[in-house]
Amino acid sequence: MDRRPSFSSLDIISKIIREQVKEGDICIDATAGRGNDTAMLAELVGESGRVISFDIQEEAIESTRALLCEKNLSSRVDLHLESHSEMGHYAEKETISCITFNFGWLPKGDHNIFTKKETSIPAIEAGLELLKDGGIMTLILYYGRETGFEEKDALLDYLPTIDSKKYTVVEMPFVNRSNCPPIPVVILKGR
Ligand SMILES: C[S@@+](CC[C@H](N)C(=O)[O-])C[C@H]1O[C@@H](n2cnc3c(N)ncnc32)[C@H](O)[C@@H]1O
After folding, report:
1. Domains along the chain?
2. Which ligand 1 atom is nearest residue 36's CA?
3. Cα angle: 63, vertex 46, 19; to 5 degrees
4. CB of 140 within 8 A of CB of 150?
5. Residue 81 Cα, ligand 1 centroid: separation in angstroms?
């Protein structure tokens, strides 16, 4: 019998992103991985929009490139083999509708390479500047197993320090699930 819970962190964040992103928007996928989030964003922004995606692993960039090609979405996406902490160099301030971070390691990849607080926090800070009024940033925090707790703990310490006059930060931890369920977070700018 399939005992998987019906909603994952990814399901919740995807619903929020689908609600937010409109045709013509500019979006950032901070952790391209296998390209699923980049492809979703590319579909949502349409032909007149743009997606800027980052990953530090060649394997992730190539996987994302292949998925976009298969879905005929390549022309809407700029792929960068670069740390997300550098995203401030790739977009103008206050122009981005949605920035998504899916932390952790590359699915079916090397579990020893995963996101780290030393680059995750500067990347969030850079991303907040890029969001336009009404824009959102989504995060999925993974922890436990090879990843440990360092990044998650640092992020949960950092998030409450974000300026409440400019941003609203909402954490949505699962409270009745075991085995370190990933934590969805949404940051809204303005409004
Ligand atoms: C959980 S995966 C992302 C999954 C992806 N969203 C998808 O749809 O398949 C996390 C990714 O973050 C990448 N990563 C780790 N550190 C990074 C950094 N500093 N900048 C950008 N990407 C990074 C990893 O290489 C990995 O591919």
Report:
1. 11-189 (3.40.50.150)
2. 8
3. 95
4. no
5. 11
Beta bridge pairs of residue 64:
none
pLDDT in tens, 149-167: 999 999 999 999 999 999 9
Q: In sequence order, which ranges of 46-133 are alpha helices (DSSP H)?
A: 58-70, 117-130
pLDDT by residue (tens digit) across 86-117? 999 999 999 999 999 999 999 898 898 889 99
Q: Name the token pair of 159.
A: 């998030």
Closest C-alpha residue for ligand 1 atom 18: 83
Q: Which secondary-structure segment (H or E) carries 80? A: strand 77-81
Checking if the pLDDT of 5 tops 70, the result is: no
- Using the structure block, give the residue that is written with the tokens 């085995």: 179
| Neighbouring residues of 65: CB distance < 8 A, sequence distance ≥ 6 | 35, 74, 79
**Exposure pattern of 150-166 as b/e (b: 16+ CB <10 Å)?**
ebbeebbeebeeeeeee
Cα 143 to Cα 6, 109, 155, 164, 183: the distances in Å are 21, 16, 11, 26, 9
